[in-house]
Amino acid sequence: MQMANLIPVATTVGANKIVPTISIPYPLGDPATSPQEQWKLRYHRVGVALDALTADIQEQTVFKVKY
User: Fold this and answer.
1) Cα separation, 18 vs 62, whole angstroms
2) Helix-, strand-, coil-residue percentages of the chain, each rounded to 5
3) Torsion sign across C-alpha atoms 53, 58, 62, 67
4) Do residues 19 and 2 touch, judged by C-beta distance below 8 A?
5) What is the pTM for the complete model shown?
6) Which of 44, 15, 13 is CA-nearest to residue 28?
7) 13 and 59 Cβ atoms separated by less than 8 Å
8) Whole-angstrom Cα distance, residue 54 to residue 64?
9) For each of the chain's 67 residues, which pLDDT tens digit applies?
10) Cβ-count burial of 31 within 10 angstroms (0-12 exposed, 13-18 middle, 19+ buried)?
11) 21, 3 in Cβ contact below 8 A?
12) CA distance 31 to 4
């Protein structure tokens, strides 16, 4: 499982479960937003990542995130 903002790179190297992130310097947050909004972004993406860890998949999968 990999959390990555460069999805094409993650798929090329063969990550089987991929969770999209926001950017290279701030993968789980956005410093231009309020602390509350950053918390929501992080909470959601970590939740998706935890669900991805337990998901039974048969092929390479990019999981959907809301933001």
Assistant:
1) 5
2) 40, 15, 50
3) negative
4) yes
5) 0.88
6) 44
7) no
8) 15
9) 999 999 999 999 999 999 999 999 999 988 999 999 999 999 999 999 999 999 999 999 999 998 7
10) exposed
11) yes
12) 18
